[in-house]
């Protein structure tokens, strides 16, 4: 249970915490229309290489701004309100920032976008910048095929190992030697499962097939099959 | 604990396994075409001799740089649509492009090389009139912006305002244009119509008024339309009434300035009747004065090249017939290009020296016009100096159908751009026809059995045909292999179009509607395009004029290609939204030809139109049209159809929506093709208005009748094909009181199945209605976020009548489940995937403003997602409820090929159950395939043939060897 919680928590962290800093605001006003200013940065990439594909979207396409050649931007003519500002490029990922402009245009601040608890405010330090959190990942990785994958496949392991034992063991061990045979018998007895102890495979069967499957948990060989299928 | 891990694994798998593109699939079955829209301003980038850029600013508020070699985009900036992003002016200087945007609201400077913004400033309010570059002592440093009541000068380097001045008497004087000849003065020209012209000269340095003159001109009403500045600052105007030219020198400093009249007759010229003459002047460099040569258009096909020489007007050359003229400058040379008609399908462009009017040798260029296209509208000339100092050029021709064609001497088309495709209004995908052999093979299964022997023969003959086709295919492969690669052409033409194995290649029929200005009147026209879905190449086009300005279009496929020898048939319904008058255009969707079937004339306004599943004897589906007298007419209306209609009349129902009255009403057809009203629902107009009414798609199939629950019982879906989802929005837009409502109505009985209201929400609402669910998206004003809501309808654990669904006999109300989610982005449009049999799970395709198309599994929008995970919900594979839906870039079906301003997404089933064809259109067009449940019915394209064959071979050899070994062993044993 604890592990589950931990995983959940980590998951949220990855989705929420990546949000970097936000946008800076200016105090220039223009009638009852205001200006959202900021700067977008892609670390390690020249601005000339990406600004031509970038746009600044405020609340969808409600207001549109463009990036200057140095990566800074200004979205003009925005009335007071609360907006989600986003820098959009097909190549790099920027996290959205919420910007609030009061009716007087004075109290403006940026914070991380939190859609679930909209009242929760995590302010961004001022003045600040939107930093790209890396390139977008659009593609899934193909499952590549390698010899190791093939050999480490449980089905193959199950087939190959007994084969090796059957073929090689008689050659290595001289079965005609009576002493050896005795020794082997002894060791076989050692290996034999204690009837009191639960079988590992049986335990797995119970786990994977739920409550119904538990009643008819069969022998060990039967029990492993559903587990293998699940994968 | 272990169970939880398992659940988590499941979730991870679910999150990962749905819809994604692999990197090696890029461009394999998808394509994108980027457009800019109808070009309004265009400049060739000339500051570097070898520059390959042409700058275009368009009516779709797009500013872009095109590659003159290929026609592709270097970069493109898409501004807000609507008047706020409207581009008013484009000025070009060096590597800067100055744009005036939003009726003079913003002044922007772009770096042409990088495609980034240099600066952007907000201008003072006021209606924009004109902008021009202002030069001084040979260099251009400023830009002047003239508005209704102010003139301002800005620095080109940073946009800062140098000075701003109020225009005197701006209430009475209509200031229309601004001019600068590079001598330290900026002239604002205004007019009091039919009285006098006001000329004000400002000093470039400080905005001081140097002089202010008014000149009597009682005959003049508009400076922009009939005046130009030429030579050393001479204002020249043309008056069609007298008809004569008027001149006055702006530099003269006398207060009793007069306009000198030069009657056109004295020059031996005549104006074509009912024609407003036009002047075309040219200023090669803003820091210098304009040319003293200019064009005067006297008729639709008559141009004159005139020259002002020592106060005298001299005719240099008369061009008749001539369609278009243009000036262009390269280096020190200025040339005049004239396009004149050659014959019906071709025009020729010739260059003339602007100073003398002499024709330049070897400058003829032939432009072949598309007979299905429009006439040339504008030409842009890109001249360049050859090594021997003669002038060569390329020309960009813009035609009335918004096509851009770039031609090189002597007439080689380098590229064309069909900019009309940026205004797609509706589209349809049509199956390609079968080839002769395919049709014959299909025929074998279609016909009824007639005896064993003939069946056997038929079987054999079809096998023979297949063999023949295969041999022919092999032969072609062999033949092609011997030829050099360059000669093997795989071009798609209409002739070799045929359906592929899995019906993945289809014909996209797209309807575009756009306006054009022709002799100062706004016309509308629409074009039909037939596009091959595999390559995106345009196979046919049809250009139709005279469409009402606010027409609504509906495209219907009446007959598919499945009924050989009858040709497929599509009908485009064009309805004037003001009057309701409707015309039909019937055509063949594969070849684009107008059908010989004559559509009926429809004198009455049409309220509703729909296709019936009935077919006439020629396999064309019947289109019913309901006019404002509630009379029904059918198309085609043969005897056969009318008879069928009479038989079926009692079971034909339809509904009408009157959103202006808030009324929904249902009607039934009588046998005499009149109608009777059977129900009516009135939605009070004072409170809410109907925004949209969505039915289900007629070609949708639902495979499974129910869902298997965790306890092995079945929850049956409520699959009412007549269900309508009516979306309403409150008329009160205050954010505390606004709401969005959704009403589910049975279209036959008028019974309200369900009603839901989302408080503190407003539109725009996007709805998808399919199977037993409705998904809609709205803006929550309270939480300031976009939210999705899903409604699912279930019959319950038992099905009332499992064989057929009848709206009239369904006593039990369905169970309604609803759940809402937060969506972290605004959306542009939404559609659901569609497959042939409906076995594949459904995805929602969501067009985002960022340009991505998100493929969101319907699984995430399931009202049965539990808040607390139970054994049963796990058994059902339900994902635990989470309030926020995620946008993962891996789910973007168009990866980095973002699509601007997505207006619609069209989904169409293919022959493969796993595959759905998707076309997204807006400013761009993007076509791809999606596999909502992965490719379960074909081998994956990364299928490892090498592995499987090597394993088989290895096994084969292993058996051979072990057989041999066994034999040896046996032999040895026998010897022992």
Features:
heterodimer; A: 231 residues; alpha+beta; Immunoglobulin-like; 4-stranded mixed β-sheet; 10 strands; elongated; disordered C terminus; B: 976 residues; mainly beta; 4-stranded antiparallel β-sheet; 63 strands; 45% strand; disordered N terminus
- The secondary structure category of chain A is alpha+beta
Poorly predicted spans of chain B: 1-17
The succession of helices and strands of chain A, N to C, reads HEEHEEEEEEEEHHHHH
Q: Would you identify the CATH H-level superfamily of the domain at 34-135 in chain A?
A: Carboxypeptidase-like, regulatory domain
Identify the strand order in the major beta sheet of chain A.
Answer: 4-3-6-7-8
Structural class of chain B: mainly beta
User: How many runs of DSSP E, i.e. beta strands of chain B?
Assistant: 63
Oligomer: heterodimer
Fold blueprint:
The complex is a heterodimer of chains A (231) and B (976).
Chain A: H1 2-16, E1 25-30, E2 33-41, H2 47-50, E3 55-58, E4 63-65, E5 72-79, E6 81-88, E7 97-101, E8 109-112, E9 130-131, E10 139-140, H3 147-152, H4 154-172, H5 178-191, H6 200-214, H7 220-230
Parallel strand pairs in A: 2-9
Antiparallel strand pairs in A: 1-2, 2-5, 3-4, 3-6, 6-7, 7-8
Helix pairs in contact in A: 6-7
Chain B: H1 2-17, E1 21-22, E2 31-33, E3 39-44, E4 53-58, E5 62-67, E6 73-78, E7 87-93, E8 96-101, E9 106-111, E10 116-122, E11 128-136, E12 139-147, E13 150-155, E14 161-166, E15 174-180, E16 185-192, E17 196-203, E18 209-216, H2 223-226, E19 227-230, E20 234-239, E21 244-249, E22 260-263, E23 278-280, E24 293-299, E25 302-309, E26 312-319, E27 324-330, E28 333-341, E29 346-353, E30 365-368, E31 376-385, E32 391-399, E33 403-408, E34 412-418, E35 424-431, H3 436-446, H4 452-482, E36 506-518, E37 521-532, E38 538-544, E39 551-559, E40 569-576, E41 582-587, E42 606-615, E43 621-627, E44 632-635, H5 639-648, E45 653-658, E46 663-669, E47 675-682, E48 688-694, E49 706-708, E50 714-717, E51 723-730, E52 739-746, E53 752-759, E54 761-770, E55 773-780, E56 785-796, E57 815-823, E58 829-832, E59 843-847, E60 853-857, H6 871-875, E61 904-909, E62 916-921, E63 925-930, H7 945-975
Helix pairs in contact in B: 3-4
């Amino acid at each position: 249970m604890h592990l589950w919680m931990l995983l959940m928590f980590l998951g949220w962290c990855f989705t929420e915490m990546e949000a970097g800093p936000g946008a800076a605001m200016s105090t220039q006003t223009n009638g009852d229309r205001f200006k959202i200013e900021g700067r977008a940065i892609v670390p390690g990439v020249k601005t000339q290489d990406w600004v031509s594909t970038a746009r600044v979207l405020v609340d969808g396409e409600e207001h549109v701004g463009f990036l200057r050649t140095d990566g800074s931007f200004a979205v003009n003519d925005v009335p007071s309100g609360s907006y989600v500002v986003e820098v959009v490029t097909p190549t790099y990922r920027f996290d959205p920032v919420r910007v609030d402009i009061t009716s007087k245009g004075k109290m403006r601040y940026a914070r991380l976008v939190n859609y679930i608890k909209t009242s929760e405010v995590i302010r961004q330090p001022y003045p600040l910048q939107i930093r790209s959190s890396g390139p977008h990942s659009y593609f899934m990785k193909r499952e590549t095929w390698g010899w190791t994958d093939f050999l480490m496949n449980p089905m193959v392991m199950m087939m190959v190992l007994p084969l090796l034992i059957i073929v090689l063991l008689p050659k290595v061990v001289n079965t005609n030697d009576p002493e050896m045979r005795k020794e082997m018998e002894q060791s076989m007895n050692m290996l034999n499962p204690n009837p009191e102890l639960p079988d590992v495979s049986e335990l797995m069967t119970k786990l994977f097939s739920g409550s119904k499957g538990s009643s008819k948990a069969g022998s060990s060989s039967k029990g492993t099959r559903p587990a293998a299928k699940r994968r | 604990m272990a169970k939880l891990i398992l659940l988590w694994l499941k979730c991870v798998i679910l999150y990962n396994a749905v819809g994604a593109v692999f990197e090696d699939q890029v461009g394999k079955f998808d394509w994108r075409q980027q457009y800019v829209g109808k070009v309004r301003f265009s400049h060739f980038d000339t500051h570097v001799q070898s520059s390959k850029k042409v700058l275009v600013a368009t009516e779709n508020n797009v500013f872009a740089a095109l590659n003159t070699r290929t026609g592709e985009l270097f970069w493109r900036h898409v501004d807000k649509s609507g008047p706020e992003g409207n581009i008013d002016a484009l000025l070009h200087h060096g590597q800067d492009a100055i744009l005036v945007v939003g009726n003079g609201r913003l002044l922007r400077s772009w770096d042409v090389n990088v495609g980034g913004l240099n600066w952007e400033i907000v201008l003072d309010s006021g209606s924009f009139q004109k902008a021009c570059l202002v030069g001084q002592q040979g260099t251009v440093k400023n830009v002047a912006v003239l508005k209704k009541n102010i003139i301002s000068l800005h620095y080109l380097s940073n946009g800062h305002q140098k000075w701003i001045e109020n225009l005197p008497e701006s209430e009475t004087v209509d200031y229309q244009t601004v001019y600068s000849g590079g001598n330290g003065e900026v002239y604002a020209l205004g007019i009091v119509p039919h009285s006098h012209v006001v000329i004000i000269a400002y000093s470039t340095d400080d905005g001081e008024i140097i002089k202010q003159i008014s000149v009597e001109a009682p005959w003049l009403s508009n400076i922009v339309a009939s005046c130009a500045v030429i030579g050393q600052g001479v204002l020249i105007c043309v008056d069609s009434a007298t008809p004569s030219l008027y001149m006055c020198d702006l530099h003269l400093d006398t207060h009793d300035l007069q306009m000198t009249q030069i009657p056109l007759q004295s020059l031996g010229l005549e104006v074509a009747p009912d024609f407003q003459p036009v002047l075309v002047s040219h200023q090669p460099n803003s820091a210098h004065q304009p040319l003293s040569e200019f064009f005067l258009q006297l008729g639709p096909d008559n141009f004159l090249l005139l020259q002002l020489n020592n106060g005298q007007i001299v005719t240099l050359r008369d061009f008749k017939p001539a369609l278009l003229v243009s000036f262009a400058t390269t280096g020190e040379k200025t040339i005049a290009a004239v396009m004149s008609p050659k014959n019906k399908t071709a025009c020729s462009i010739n260059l003339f020296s602007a100073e003398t009017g002499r024709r330049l040798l070897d400058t003829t260029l032939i432009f072949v016009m598309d007979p299905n296209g429009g006439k040339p509208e504008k030409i842009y000339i890109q001249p360049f100096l050859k090594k021997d100092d003669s002038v060569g050029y390329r020309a960009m021709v813009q035609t009335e159908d918004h096509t851009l064609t770039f031609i090189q001497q002597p007439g080689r088309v380098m590229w064309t751009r069909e900019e009309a495709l940026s205004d797609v209004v509706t589209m349809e995908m049509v199956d390609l026809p079968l080839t002769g052999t395919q049709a014959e093979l299909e025929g074998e299964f279609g016909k009824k059995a007639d005896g064993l022997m003939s069946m056997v023969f038929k079987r054999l003959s079809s096998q023979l045909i297949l063999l023949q086709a295969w041999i022919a295919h092999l032969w072609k492969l062999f033949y092609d292999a011997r030829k050099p690669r360059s000669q093997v052409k795989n071009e798609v033409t209409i002739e070799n179009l045929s359906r592929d194995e899995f019906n993945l290649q289809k014909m996209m029929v797209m309807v575009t509607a756009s306006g054009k200005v022709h002799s100062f009147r706004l016309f509308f026209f629409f074009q039909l395009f037939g596009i091959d879905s595999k390559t995106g190449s345009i196979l046919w086009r049809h250009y139709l004029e005279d469409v009402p300005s606010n027409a609504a279009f509906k495209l219907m496929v009446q007959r598919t290609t499945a009924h050989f020898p009858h040709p497929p048939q599509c009908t485009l319904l064009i309805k004037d939204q003001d009057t309701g008058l409707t015309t039909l255009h019937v055509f063949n969707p594969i070849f684009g030809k107008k059908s010989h079937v004559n559509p009926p004339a429809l004198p009455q306004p049409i309220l509703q139109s729909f296709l019936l599943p009935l077919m006439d004897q020629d396999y064309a589906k019947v289109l019913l049209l309901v006019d404002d007298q509630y009379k029904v007419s059918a198309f085609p209306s043969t005897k056969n159809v009318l008879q069928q209609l009479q038989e079926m009349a009692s079971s034909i129902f339809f509904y009408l929506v009157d959103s202006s009255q808030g009324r929904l009403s249902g009607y039934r057809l009588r046998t005499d093709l009149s109608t009777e009203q059977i129900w009516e629902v009135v939605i009070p107009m004072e409170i809410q208005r109907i925004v949209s009414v969505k039915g289900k798609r007629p070609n949708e199939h639902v495979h499974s009748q129910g869902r298997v629950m965790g306890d092995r019982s079945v929850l049956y879906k409520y699959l009412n094909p007549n269900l309508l989802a009516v979306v309403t929005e409150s008329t009160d837009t205050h954010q505390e009181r606004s709401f969005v409502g959704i009403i589910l109505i049975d279209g036959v009985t008028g019974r309200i199945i369900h009603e839901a209201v989302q408080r503190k929400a407003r539109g725009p609402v996007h709805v998808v209605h399919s199977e037993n669910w409705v998904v809609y998206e709205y803006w929550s004003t309270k939480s300031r976020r976009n939210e999705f809501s899903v409604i699912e309808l279930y019959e319950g654990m038992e099905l009332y009548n499992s064989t057929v669904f009848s709206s009239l006999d369904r006593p039990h109300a369905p169970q309604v489940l609803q759940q809402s989610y937060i969506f972290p982005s605004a959306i542009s449009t939404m559609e659901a995937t569609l497959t042939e049999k409906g076995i594949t799970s459904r995805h929602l395709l969501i067009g985002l403003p960022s340009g991505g198309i998100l493929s969101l599994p319907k699984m995430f929008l399931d009202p049965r997602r539990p808040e607390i995970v139970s054994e049963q919900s796990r058994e059902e594979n339900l994902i635990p409820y989470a309030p926020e839906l995620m946008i993962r870039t891996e789910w973007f079906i168009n990866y980095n090929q973002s699509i601007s301003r997505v207006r619609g997404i069209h989904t169409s089933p293919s022959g493969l159950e796993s595959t759905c064809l998707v076309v997204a259109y807006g400013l761009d067009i993007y076509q791809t395939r999606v596999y909502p449940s992965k490719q379960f019915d074909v081998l994956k394209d990364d299928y490892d043939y090498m592995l499987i064959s090597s394993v088989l071979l290895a096994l084969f050899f292993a058996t051979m060897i072990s057989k041999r070994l066994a034999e040896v062993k046996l032999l040895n044993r026998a010897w022992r």
